[in-house]
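Subject: long-chain-fatty-acid--CoA ligase structure
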Amino acid sequence: MDLSAVLLFPVHAVVWLYSLLSFLPWYFLTGAQKKKALAKRVKSRSTTGQAEGPYRSVDHFDSLVTKDFPGKDTLDKLFDYAVERFGKADCLGTREVLSEENETQPNGKVFKKLILGNYKWVSYEEMDIQVSQFGSGLSALGQQPKNTIAIFCETRAEWMITAQTCFRRNFPLVTFYATLGEEAVAFGLNECGVTHLVTSVELLETKLKGVLPQIPNLRHIIYVDRKSISSAGYPQGIQIHSMHSVQELGAKPENLSRPIVKPISSDLAVIMYTSGSTGRPKGVMIIHSNLIGGMAGQCERIPGLGSKDTYIAYLPLAHVLEMTAEISCVTYGCRIGYSSPQTLSDQSTKIKRGSKGDCTMLKPSLMAAVPEIMDRINKNVMSKVQEMNCVQRTLFKLAYDYKLKQIKKGYDAPLCNILFKKVRALLGGNVRMMLSGGAPLSPATQRSMNICFLLLHLLLSSMEEKVSAYRFETTYSCRDSPNTSGGYKKHDKPHPRGEILIGGPNVTMGYYRSEGCINEDFFVDENGQQWFCTGDIGEMHPDGCLQIVDRKKDLVKLQAGEYVSLGKVESALKNCSLIDNICAYANSDQNYVISFIVPNQKKLTALASQKGIEGTWEEICNQPIMEREVLREIKEVATSIKLQRFEIPVMIHLSPEPWTPETGLVTDAFKLKRKELKNHYLNDIERMYGHK
């Protein structure tokens, strides 16, 4: 992205602009009075009158949100209602692939580059026909109501068509991340006794083919691509079909007339296998009413959600954040354009230089993002700002600081927004709201995104176990945390603190076929209310806002007795320009913190050049002098944001390879897999703790 034209105002305009903004009556023009009143009001209050709660939203204090529309208590009813209202309107869009070519990088790596065409759209009525035919075809292939069917596929229109098919015919859908390892997928398919599987040709041939002999119950594999593949090399007893051929089978009159067994609200809708930050993946059981309740609270918080909105879909649909976001969009008549992390923007890795990425073509108004992606967007913007000339940087900083001041007062700064037009173009120029969940979002990134992209943020709790609850569309409570979690207590002053428990219609039914400790995350109280123990540490403020301040699993007690929150250290140090990703690590038998770091290649390479260091990227990362330079900047950042001495890493290791879901070191939501990271860097841990 070229931001050189962002700030081409003459220097003398600065004084004029600042004066004008200071005296115009933005208080009334931007509705600041109403915004300030909403910000200051009490958002939730205790149901018992006790400071520790449970707390519930004042908007739904007497009864929690359970559904979007009266009588629409299952997912198939929501879809039928949407088809009835939006019939001929665009629903699902996919870009044509015009051409592919390989591009060799200077380091010898070969990247596939795409030239993509326009979006081709399927209307609500056309989608309804495809759903009906696919469901009839699956029934003709022996799929029975209340018997599980699995999908192991990338995010695409066929995924949503499959999901709506299963919801309509009461086929519980078992979902797997496309990046999940083949052994984990085989485990889940066997655990659920799946006989029918929907997948893509790429995943079938690269991941599934080798483990199919380990899945004895599997009888039918349906691939979503419009191509033909040979059944040679596949185990006997497994039939391979294209999705199109199954739809053709379902279109036959004798199959279309097959009876449909509709679900009820308490029926199982999804078994969602988590990628898991530790251990073997677990299947979370989600019934129809869980999803309906979670989405109702989510949609209520999106102003004006409707047919004028366009949503860009690129996160894994096997994650509850993306799945509920897309189902909500279908329910309210929004268009959904499909994308991928590799084709999202003009600068994405699979987009050929000079051609347009998906955001530029689609111009979405809504999107979801995990904090890791938002951090990358923000760092890219700020990096471009640093490359501006002195005048441009000064103007940008003036506009940024002024708008920040106005936002804190409840105002807006419309003329400043003109300066951020080029920045907004990164995401197509029309994004008005972003859903964020899956991991903590740093305040600095959220503030920057709000200012530069003019966003309203809908912050979601997006663990599969509690669907996508927005703030207080559930009941929240705190309980005393174990001593290993730093001694947080629900009677702490001035604010109660402790582990956050969630109760409400969106809390799921627990883990599939799991016994023992992992199902202790769920319990039912004396009133029959299902609760989920999140593992997050929260602090309740007087205005009813709940702030997540820690994570139980992230706390380590050092040898001298100090508690270190690894997540806090990581969130703080991501502000360092040399760092793309970081994992803090500590042992209880040691008295200092160490870290593994994925450095920013552009910044570190430039720093190496200043120090007279040359070589490959791997050689630069392995230079002790570069470790010392990164550690020096870490200490400067840590000091400026007032980290405690014992929280600042003493030694680090620079990793030349980024952490992606494919490496198995982060989840599909880009949360750190601490156990896997520890094992991966075991030799470096021993080195760093052996030599201080």
